[in-house]
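Record type: monomer structure entry
Structure origin: computed from sequence
Chain ID: A
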Amino acid sequence: MASGKPLLSMHPELSPARVYLIGLALGCATGVDFWASAMMGVAGTHIRGGVHASPEDFLWSLTSYAAAAVVANLMLRRLAQDISYRGFTLAGLAIASVGALLCALSRNPLELSLARAVQGFGAGGLFAASRIIIQIGAAPDERRPLFIGFNIGSMGLVALAPWITAQLVESAEWQLVFVVQAGIAFLTLLFVIATYPKRLTATRAPWDVDVHVMDWMTVLLIGAGALILLHGLGDLRFYELTSSPSVAATPMIGVAFFVAAFAYLHRHPDPWLNPRLLLGRRFLVGLAFYAIYYFLGGLWTYVVANMLQGGLGFTFQTTGTVLTTTGLIGFAGAMAFTYGRSLLVGTRRYIAFGYLLFAASAWLLSQRMMLGASINVLLPALALQSLAMPFSLMLVAGLTWAEFTVEDFAHGYQFKNIVRQIATAGGTGLASLWLQYGEVLARTQLIARVTPFDFPQGIAQAELLQLSRVIDQQATLLSTSNLFALLSFFCIAIASIAILQRALR
């Protein structure tokens, strides 16, 4: 810094403070998507009650957001050619803000689902756009200042979302959750305008893009495939496969749409998503580890929230506090990783170490699933899972893209974020399906142990209700404990695979 050397050689006019602020703006833009998902996860039951939606109807508000996000990622690179990644980010933030306000104005499940689709289309591509900007705007040895701000915005600030949402749920109407999301998107838009450097070459305004030349066949196939697949995976939590076999067929129809889309793209002379660039061994192995992480992330988020509220009876505020605390621990680990990445030698063993931390966390929780368990008992185990993230995600990210050119990176990162949406939904669907069956089996066994001899004087209605609640809680904790134990062995297997694989080195 004493020599006056700029932090970004491609933008020597930018001061060091401006570079760090750009990184923070990149992270905040990414965080708009993460805030929307995190707040919806915590406040979902209150929002569902506010629009008078059944669980099945409310599912559309979740899958419409995710499917629209998939389409946004698909269109990202092609739109950025016309309006730049800066323009794409500004347009996305504006659309996300409007979508959130429409959510606040929704009066029924249909209006909420349509509004969430608007919000998802705006916010869904912001993560990929931010990462591509870092990739094209800085040389590899210049990216640390950007990543510091990026981590603060995308992880540090977003870690506050569960706690803030819990406060809103307890003290205000459900609409305020979306008003806050709209405000975050709008303030981030102003922050981006103030910090992002402008392109040297002229670009089109979003309303000047020629929509007639767009590849609408790809949009139709992948958009419909994403909606059907994601909704089919979500539906698993509401129906039993034995009584509703069509539920299992629905995700397969979604997969068929994706297969048709890739067959079409393979023959396209200028595809929006180039399949030929996605077949490298390093990328496919990295993508597999990405998918595993996001699959486990979707599963973990669903199970932990269900465990804290349904199993242990924690309030929204306590649950929000726990989730925010573990999120901040993960953020601290991510920042330490950003500074100490160069000290890690032997990448495969550190990826394995991350999954061993995940396994230890799951195993400890499986042993602590009992009524009355306190935060102090659970927090160390939950913290281990948060600390696994730098090794099982950030390290994989650094290795997967090592050989990609800037243009190829945009193609690959588009597809990576499409996989992220699907893998997260798959993890959530499997977790809900497991708990659904596990709770039924556990409840049946617990009820079988209750006999008339336990109540020789009879039982009052209030006592019966209390007994029913205890049985429900015990059933949730038993099924959760079994899932955590199984997850622990699965993570150990993934750690073994990480040691043996040779593509990410």
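Annotation 1: The chain has three domains: 1-199, 216-271, 273-505.
Annotation 2: The radius of gyration is 23 Å.
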